[in-house]
Write a structure and sequence with these properties.
By secondary structure, the protein is of the alpha/beta class. The N and C termini lie far apart (51 Å). Strand 17 and strand 18 form a beta hairpin. The chain has 18 helices and 25 strands. The strands form five sheets. Strands 2-6-5-3-4-9-8 form a seven-stranded mixed sheet, sandwiched between helices. Strands 20-21-22-23-24-19-25 form a seven-stranded antiparallel sheet. The chain has a five-stranded mixed sheet with strand order 11-10-12-13-14, sandwiched between helices. The structure holds 1,6-di-O-phosphono-alpha-D-glucopyranose (G16). The site of 1,6-di-O-phosphono-alpha-D-glucopyranose has 18 residues, from loops.
Amino acid sequence: MIRTVATTPFTDQKMGTAGLRRKSTVATQANYVENFMQSIFNTIGDLKGKTFVVGGDGRYYNDIAIQVIIKMAAANGVSKLIVGQNGFMSTPAGSNIILKNKANGGFILSASHNPGGPSGDFGIKYSNESGGQIPSSVSDRIYQNTLNISEYKICDVSDIDLSKIGTQDLEGMEIEVIDPVKDYVEMMQNIFDFASIRKLFQQGFTMRFDAMNAVTGPYARKIFEEVLGAPKGSVVNYNPLPDFGGLHPDPNMVYAKELVDFMFSDHAADFGAANDGDGDRNMILGKKFFVTPSDSLAILTDNFNLIPAYKNGIYGVAKSAATSTAVSRVAKAHNIGYYEVPTGWKYFVNLMDSKRITFCGEESFGTGSSHIREKDGIWAVLFWLNIIAATGKSVEQITREHWQKYGRSYYVRFDFEGVDTAVADKLMADLENKLPSLENKTFAGFKIEHAGAFVYNDPVDHSSTKNGLIISFADGSRIVYRLSGTGSSGATIRVYLERYSKDNLSADPLKMLTEIFKIAMDISEIPERTGKHQADVVT
Ligand code: G16
């Protein structure tokens, strides 16, 4: 039943920040997924005795791709697959299943926060036995393989029934279909104080969780409504749909509009949160109040001792370079390790494995801990609920008290989307050349202390990664420029701005950053070179 099929390479199968992401129209071409998967299998080598976890966020084409992956895994000699029922599994749940079962890796079919459907995006995230996504050294080898591939192997059988929990056999490979929610709920119960959160809801506390018609709906309903007793209806948009019901499942102030409108209305709930397509991103809201992901990381870190799993201490904390420096002040106050890595959760994995850090987070609405090796949307929501239950304070109160203690990092990200790739590449290259000459120069009263590329030297595997350009000012303000690595066409230039104030705590972030935005535009020449005088998305 094993068929070897001749194929020719696609030249665009290089993975980005987190796996391969392409327009559905590209990913659904004949042999596209097959070539990519065979290249992964070829790179791993001997698959005998190996176990992989498979699932996805339910987006368009997942149902077809998952059957291809199962049939190819069997044809290539994989011993066992652990598959989420009906093909569903969130990215954090997948990481947990890999670690819990000591599997050799896993595949989550998702383009994360990118829209889905025939005109949206499709993607594949590939993790290894660490439970985290593979390092660039491995993805580079896979890419080389995709450029030289000439055949792939697949079983010629009818589709596998993934609707029932249990085991079945395909050409000597065991397929175990599991409930993707169960183990995840157990893990969360072992981290947080569920009894006190339950009591909070009993006392009338209200929340709204927007699953954005994506994978976390079933997880959220189980945890928040069934186990913790939040009122029925607290979780909205809970049915994972192939096109996310037309939503762009990116939990931020722009795309989670329905939730934002509700939380900024007069009948808002006490607490609001949203997750993205595959459940690893989160947004936290209070009544008429938004918490930036950078502040959220700082606040969670400062409150580690309120959470049962962390109350005995944490190793340290890390953030991506583009994330605000708010958490650095918390790390200093608690005298714990502090690291800055390139954008991409995979860079945290070595720090967690070597017990250098327990928490980590990114400006791109990702927060997590070493309980798994991916960021975890529901974990962050439960952490906030646990703090609220333990302190009796609102989201706004907790955040304002944090600023009083540490000062406030005003922080906004500007995205310039759909830029011609050649224009964006040249802009970044020219900027990198120009930056060192700007050191010690002053712009609109802001003196530049350092300017240049961000280079990360991993203390564990000693690899070196260059990612983005940073301008640091004498007063602690910063500009970071990066090209996004998660888009599916064209280039997105991200500009991250930060300005610190010890005592001016209630200003409008955009106003606080007006001069720095102007400096960022003047130095980079973004308007002149791209024709864009305004960012497409401001978060
Ligand atoms: C992925 C990575 C994150 C990264 C984000 C943004 O998230 O896992 O670590 O911060 O992309 O990447 P970029 O700025 O390159 O677009 P996700 O949720 O998309 O998997």
